[in-house]
Here is the input.
Amino acid sequence: MRFAVLISGTLTTLLYFNSDHIYGIFTDNPEVLELGRHIFLIEIFLEIGRAVNMVMVMSLQAAGDIKGPVTIGLLSMWLVSVAGAYFFGIVLDFGLIGIWIAMMMDECLRALIFIYRWHSGVWRHKNLI
Here is the structure.
């Protein structure tokens, strides 16, 4: 998991520091370039959470724990990502930044839940077949 977090964090940090060049391929609008910088900053934390999720979910699935991660994933995506995108993006009027914040919160929350689930050992009582 450390390797996945290191790679994801490093690559997205590089993208963040080069965001003006990346978005500059498509536009020279300073507002779009600034928005892109903010999104890439949020993306650093989103991708670290996603890397943890991918490793932990695959580990839990390999141990026979499938229903738990699927249920947690569905609930988190709907309650945190979708509802959070509406709340941050529309209610608080953060726009696109608010939507990305909600997606980042979803990934990070699931990462914490799956780490807890792994350390709790609940997967030890699952059948492999």
